[in-house]
Design goal:
The chain is mainly beta and 155 residues long. It has one domain: Metal Binding Protein, Guanine Nucleotide Exchange Factor, Chain A, CATH 2.170.150.70.
């Protein structure tokens, strides 16, 4: 994409600045995943925003590493500083619409985005909870809603 940034454009990138992006679509909300893979990837919980990957202009793409975290999902990170960047479903053997989520912590300013959804709530450690109301889905409910294959056990 090229041209002037629309008013809803957001920017982000990794900790060291080797990877930067401009997102030309304001996400609707922030979501949380409590699955074991997301917790290991993020070092805690995974805060993410679902976006259209075609609405992102990347700079420093040569510094993006992709890790196939399961047969049907992969995660990306900066090869220099290790910052998480995005998660996406892999095209192979997956019948549902592809999913793509940016790591919310990599966005420079989340503005007025609200935390709306928590998935894999049945895998959430007992030691923390978010304030306010969120739509909560168990692993089974999330996998059914998103047509996740069940053998992978998490995003």
């Amino acid at each position: 994409m090229s041209g002037a940034q629309p008013p809803q454009a957001m920017t982000g990138g990794c900790l060291c600045g080797a990877v930067r992006y401009t997102l030309h679509q304001k996400p609707k909300q922030i979501d949380v995943c409590h699955c074991g893979m997301c917790r290991k990837f993020s070092g805690g919980i995974e805060l993410g925003v679902d976006v259209d990957p075609d609405k992102i202009d990347w700079q420093g793409e040569e510094n993006i590493e992709i890790y196939a975290s399961s047969e049907w999902a992969e995660r990306s990170f900066c090869r220099i500083c290790g910052s998480g960047l995005f998660w996406r479903t892999r095209a192979k053997d997956w019948d549902a619409e592809p999913l793509f989520g940016l790591c919310a912590g990599a966005i420079d300013d989340l503005g007025d985005l609200d935390l709306k959804t928590e998935i894999y709530i049945d895998q959430k450690p007992a030691g923390y909870a978010f304030a306010g109301q969120t739509d909560k889905k168990t692993q089974a409910e999330a996998e059914a809603a998103f047509a996740f294959p069940t053998e992978g056990g998490g995003r």
